[in-house]
Amino acid sequence: MSAAIQQRPAVRAGGTPSVVRLLVLATFVVILNETILINAIPRLMDSLRISEQSAQWVSTAFMLTMAAVIPVTGWFLQRVTTRQAYAIAMGVFLTGTALSAVAPSFEVLLAGRIVQAAGTAVMMPLLMTTLMIVVPEHDRGRVMGNVTLAISVAPALGPAVSGLILQVGSWRLLFVVVLPIAAVVTVLGLRKVDNISEPQVSSIDWLSVAVAALGFGGLVYGLSLFGEADGRVGLGIGIVIAGVAAIAVFVIRQLTLQRTGVPLMDLRTLGHRTYGLSLALMSIGFLAMLGSMILLPLYLQNLRGLSPLQTGLLVMPGGLAMGLLGPAVGKVFDRFGSRPLVLPGSIGMVLALGGFTQVSMTMPYWQVLVLHALLMVSLAATFTPVFTLGMGALPPHLYSHGSSMLGTLQQVAAAFGTALVVTVMSARTRHLAADGVAAVPAQLSGMKLAFGVVAALALVTIIFAAKLPRRIASPA
Q1: Does one domain contain both 210 and 301?
Q2: DSSP state at residue 165
Q3: Are 179 and 211 part of one and the same domain?
Q4: Alpha-carbon radius of gyration of the chain
Q5: Residue 143 half-sphere exposure, CB side, CA atoms within 13 Å?
Q6: CA distance 182 to 247
Q7: Pfam family of this protein, just one (predicted)?
Q8: Where does a domain end: 160, 193, 226?
Q9: Do 341 and 224 fall into the same domain?
Q10: Residue 448 pLDDT
Q11: Which residues contact 475 (CB under 8 A, 6 or more apart)?
Q12: Which of 18, 138, 227, 386 lies 20 to 30 Å from 421, alpha-carbon distance?
């Protein structure tokens, strides 16, 4: 990344360094919170007397904050020491967790989630930067595989962990349980983490940061208003248009900075065809994953009457499969290339989402489990090869920009997906209810339509997958 993180060579060979283990543990704890509230959405709606559109923002705001902060982390990590970065990131996360635990209203809870996300966004780049410095090059593949496994399992376990906790207490307990664990991890980390680079003076274009946040945030927020009462649709359209305009300004600003300075995101990465295809495929995959993770608890709890624990256990096999298949997928990719993985994975994703369009009040639970597992396994077969192909298609000087853009758009796509499915479901439900349809059939029809919209978007991934090369040659 910067000169600051290149000053020290790898300092340890063999086993995984303890500093990396601690950073992995800390990152696991904070990333778990990205999805831990998904299973609690029905409980939040009842406790705080809010609608689906409002409740989904406890996840959407988290993701959008991550998207806004991730591009800034490269600059931030250059200006502070490793210990300072760790202390600040975990301190911010602990503050957000405590605020969420005692939140007297939905607005305060939302603020707490935003603060949580700001700390979370720093941990992944800090972990990856530290790993690249302290782990010898010949050992990085093994360590990176273990890191990827841990980080993949975290969001997958979120609904299951929350289901268990919600079985014995209120949604506030989700934060109360996390708080002491995160505090212990923070103290242990500060005792073990050493400074592996010196701070460097660097600059950042804050206008780009502000315009990007307004653009992506406005786009998703405007979309979420479409599902509200008719009087807010016009406001939603206006905010969406403003968001698109802000994104256009962001693009123009980056193109200008590419010629005269240092862009926040170097858009020349998009000039590499394989990277562009990979970026689009990964974004749609995250949209589908988070969209389904929002809809399933609403279906299983609100319509089928399952408890949060039962819901979490039902979706846990698929989530665990996604994380645990990571190393095996990597080995298959190394041996056979992307084609045996990405194309079947894309097709499996469409089939699973298409199957969810047939949800009903009598669908056997084993079918729900199988469809969810198929979706998660398909995503596992897709993400690792696509990420490797996309980053491998870039020249080394664009690695940091490619990684930053990929991380940012993944979060934006996930936030967009949650807002999209809830908006489609709510709009359809409200329309049918106005025509005299009973509440349960109306909501079920809304869920089917929402799954159908996501399945239609996922069809595009098959085209992208077919265009990806089996392997990537070293860029010129």
Answers
A1: no
A2: H
A3: no
A4: 22
A5: 25
A6: 35
A7: MFS_1
A8: 193
A9: no
A10: 95
A11: 272, 392, 393, 394, 395
A12: 386
Residue 154 tokens, joined = 């975290």
Q: Is residue 11 part of a domain?
A: no
Which tens digit of pLDDT belongs to each residue from 271-317? 888 889 988 998 898 888 888 888 988 899 889 988 878 888 888 88
Letter for the amino acid at 27? T
DSSP state of 228: S
Lookup result for tokens 């609608």 = 51
For 39-71, how does the pLDDT look when each residue is reduced to its tens digit (9 = 90+)?
788 888 888 888 877 887 888 788 888 878 888
Instruction: Tell me: do 98 and 224 sit in the same domain.
Output: no
> How big is the CA angle at 259 (ends 254 and 261), to the nearest 5 degrees?
75
DSSP string of 84-120, one letter each residue:
HHHHHHHHHHHHHHHHHHT-SSHHHHHHHHHHHHHHH
Tell me the C-alpha distance between 282 and 409, whole Å. Answer: 9
- Give the confidence band of 113 by pLDDT, cuts at 50, 70, 90: very high
Domain of residue 439 covers 269-475
| Secondary structure of residue 178 in the 3-state scheme | helix
Q: Are 83 and 193 in contact (CB under 8 A)?
A: yes
Q: Are 42 and 165 in contact (CB under 8 A)?
A: no
Q: What angle do CA 126, 86, 196 make, to 5 degrees?
A: 65
CA distance linking residue 154 with residue 106, whole number of Å: 25
Angle between helices 18-32 and 82-101 (to 10 degrees): 30
Residue 83 per-residue DSSP state: H
269: pLDDT strictly greater than 60: yes
Task: Please name which of 39, 12, 17, 3 lies closest in space to residue 296, comparing C-alpha atoms.
Answer: 39
Kindly state the tokens that stand for 287. 């949209």
Distance CA 293, CA 428 (A): 19
Return the structure tokens found at 250. Answer: 């962001």
- In 3D space, the residue among 381, 197, 393 whose CA is nearest the CA of residue 278 turns out to be 393
Please count the CA atoms within 13 angstroms of the CA of 360 that sit on its side-chain side.
5
Q: Provide φ and ψ at 304, rounded to 5°.
A: -95, -10
Residue 2 domain-assigned? no
- Round to whole Å and give the CA distance between 378 and 359: 20
Q: How many contiguous H segments (helices) and E segments (strands) does the chain have?
A: 17, 0
